[in-house]
Structure formats: C-alpha cells, structure tokens
Design brief:
Mean pLDDT of chain B: 86
Shape of chain B: globular
Number of helices of chain B: 8
Number of domains of chain A: 1
Number of strands of chain B: 0
Structural class of chain B: mainly alpha
Number of domains of chain B: 1
Radius of gyration of chain A: 17 Å
Low-confidence stretches of chain B: none
CATH topology of chain A: Rhopdopsin 7-helix transmembrane proteins
CATH architecture of chain A: Up-down Bundle
Order of helices and strands of chain B: HHHHHHHH
Oligomer: heterodimer
CATH superfamily of chain A: Rhodopsin 7-helix transmembrane proteins
Number of strands of chain A: 0
Order of helices and strands of chain A: HHHHHHHHH
Chain lengths: 205, 209
C-alpha cells in the first residue's frame, strides 16, 4: 500500500513539474525547458505505467522493459540538459577527478549485479557514470560558471538519492514505513522540484 | 499465408504502382506510408515471436511487448532514411508522421477485417483512440526531434530517449484501453486530447512542416 501512495505522490509532483515546464516551453520555445519537460515526462510515464500495473493487474510489470526504457530516457534527457547548460569548452577539458564518478558507478553496478539483471544494471551504470562525470567536471568550473551550479547540485543530489534508494532496496524488503527505500524515494520526489528553479536560473543567464 | 499478409498485399498494391509513377516529394510521401504499413505487418510477427519467447499471455504482451516492438519497428524506416540519405530536419519530421499514419492505417484495416464494420461507435473509438495514438507518438518524436536536431550527438542520443518516451506512452495507453468503464474512456480520449492541446498551444511554436 505504501508503494502505491508513494508512487501516486511522486506522479502528482511530477505532473505539476511537467505542467510548469510545458508552460515554459509554450512561453519561450527554449531548448532547456524542452529537455526538462522530456526529463520529467519520461519519468512520470514510467511511474504511471508502474502504478497502472499495480492497480489494474495487482502486480509489478512482469518483464519491466517498458518502465526501464522510460527511466533510461529520463537519464538521457537529464544528461542532455546538463550538457546543453554547460559551455562547450567546459565539457571538452580532460580531468582526473570526474573519473571518480565513473569508478563509483562501475563499482556500484558490480555490487547491484548480485541482485539485479546484468544488462539493465550495465545500462543504468553507464547513464549514471555519464551524469556523475558531467556533474563533477562542471563543479570544477564553479567559479567561472556560477549559473549552472544549482543545476549541477540538483543533478548530483538526484544521482545520490537514486543510489541510496537502490542500495537500501538490496537490504530492506519490508513494505512498511520503516523501510528506508520509501524515505529516499520521498526525498527523490522532493528533489525533482529543484530542477525548475535551477533551470530557470540557467535560462535567465 | 494468413489474412494479414493478404490485406497487406491488397492495400499496398496501389501504393507501389503510384510510387513507380510519381517522383520527388509525392513519391517520398507514399514511400513513408508504405514503410509504416510494412512496419505494422512485421511488428505483428516480431511481437508474436517475442511473446512466445517470453511465455506471456495476450494481455501482458499487449502492454509489455507490443509497444516496445511497434515503436522500434516504426523507427527503423526513419533510421534507414536518416543514415543513408542524411536529410534535413523537416523531411525527417514529416517522414516520422507519415510512417505513423501508415502504421495506424494498416492496423485499423486489420481491425476492421477482424471485428467488422457494423458498430460505428467502436470504429470511432478505434480511429480516434488507437489510430490517433500512433500519430501522437509520431508527433512526440517529431516535436522532440525539432528541438534537439541541431547537433549530431543530440540527434543520436535524443532519438533513443524519445523512443523510450513514446514506448512508455504507448504501453500506458494499451493498459488503459484494455480496461472497462471509465478507465477505458479516459484511455481512449488521451490521444485526441493531446493532439488538441498541441494544436491549440504549441503548433505555432514548432511549425513542423
């Protein structure tokens, strides 16, 4: 039951975010708002599909490719948003520190493979590695490019909450509020909202 | 040969003849429609094969397998077109819509031969529901491509992401229209509602064709 409530709450928040970003697209035809709309849209579609299966068939999707595809798409749109927000010269520099993000994603993927499917874990790890690499490399330029920092922070918090959720799901299986998975998912729901002001600040630059 | 191939042969014959006679944009438009119909035929085979492989029933495969297969099959003619001919943005966008229309048309004809033509209400729901859904999926891809077209890496990565987006939308639609009562009506109304929203608020912004 708590899973359904949590999913419904996340869908409600995301639909509000979709509406705001769609309004911004209609108002200004900005590529950043469009990418944010697709990020929110993909995520909420995955959630709606998941919840619809729970409600109408009383079970989670048997093959789960559809929801995963939707969430892969979300990560890709988020990466595109981040990449679009950063000037090309920032994205092109070679550094060592951002590779720690990639190492972290690879290590966690190896850990998660004990429980999950290999292919989906590899895809999630690749996308997370891309996001973490991009975020950390942009943090290094924080003095030069201040307008993109809120967006980078939002993406980093989003990634860390995702990892917290996935890790907790490996150790806690109860379906009550004592399961930290639901709390992290709730925090993830809250974190979605912060992409709106972060994107607004970058667009207004 | 089962009836689906017979329908296909009957339906595409005039298209093939017209394609042979026409040139330029007219030929290209018909080729996209033909590609959409062919994708629909092949989707039937691939979906049935994948459902057999996964051991799922008809209901489960309708929302877990068919959307993935259909959207991927619809994207293949466009992928071929983009990779071989390196067209401009507007050609790809109009091609996306034409493939979707061809796909929906062939699927509707197969529906007509299976369920008859006596119930107008049912046919209208089919036409403005499932038929429109394929066009809406095409529209989503077209609008997405319109915004992300400029850079090559955006185009490649974004196309995959858009495919994931429309696949989930398609799957949700299939879940809804497989229900009864209010859920069925809501599901059936989603594509037309989305299309009207686009026409009212976003058409001037995107100017697709």
């Amino acid at each position: 039951m708590i899973e359904r409530i949590e999913n419904a709450l996340q869908i409600a928040v995301l639909l509000a975010c979709v509406s705001v970003s769609l309004y911004r697209v209609a108002a200004g035809r900005s590529r950043m708002w469009t990418l944010l709309f697709f990020f929110y849209g993909s995520w909420v579609l995955g959630d709606i599909y998941w919840l619809a299966c729970l409600i109408f068939f009383d079970q989670t999707p048997q093959i789960s490719v559809v929801s995963d595809l939707s969430w892969y798409a979300s990560y890709i749109f988020l990466y595109m948003l981040l990449r679009h927000a950063a000037p090309p010269e920032t994205a092109g520099r070679k550094r060592v520190l951002p590779w720690t993000g990639v190492l972290f994603a690879v290590g966690m993927a190896a850990f998660f493979m004990q429980w999950g499917k290999i292919v989906s874990n590899l895809i999630y790890a690749s996308l997370m590695a891309l996001l973490l690499y991009s975020v950390i490399s942009r943090f290094q330029d924080r003095k030069k490019y201040t307008a993109q920092q809120p967006l980078c922070i939002a993406v980093l918090v989003f990634c860390l909450l995702e990892y917290a959720m996935w890790t907790s799901s490996c150790f806690f299986w109860s379906e009550g509020p004592e399961n930290p998975y639901y709390w992290f998912d709730f925090l993830l729901t809250v974190s979605f909202v912060f992409f709106l002001p972060a994107t607004k600040k970058k667009v207004a630059e | 040969m089962n009836s689906m191939e017979n329908i296909y042969v009957c339906l595409v014959a005039p298209f093939i003849l017209a394609i042979l006679c026409l040139k330029g944009e007219g030929r290209k438009g018909l080729l996209f429609l033909l590609a959409g119909m062919t994708s629909c035929l092949l989707s039937g085979y691939v979906s049935a094969f994948a459902a057999g492989l996964a051991g799922t029933d008809l209901l489960t495969s309708s929302h877990e397998i068919a959307p993935v297969v259909e959207e991927v099959m619809k994207s293949l003619p466009l992928l071929f077109y983009i990779l071989i001919y390196e067209p401009d943005k507007k050609s790809v966008i109009s091609g996306t819509l034409r493939v979707a229309v061809g796909f929906a048309t062939f699927e509707n004809v197969c529906f007509l031969t299976s369920y008859g033509t006596s119930d107008l209400l049912r046919l209208m729901i089919r036409g403005f529901g499932t038929g429109a859904m394929h066009v809406v999926c095409g529209m989503i891809v077209a609008v997405g491509l319109f915004f992300i077209w400029d850079r090559t890496w955006l185009r490649a990565v974004g196309s995959f992401a858009l495919l994931g987006f429309v696949t989930t939308f398609h799957a949700i639609f299939n879940v809804f229209v497989n229900q009864t009562g209010a859920v069925f009506w809501i599901g059936s109304a989603i594509p037309v509602t989305m299309m009207l929203t686009y026409l009212l608020f976003f058409r001037r912004k995107t100017d697709l064709a």
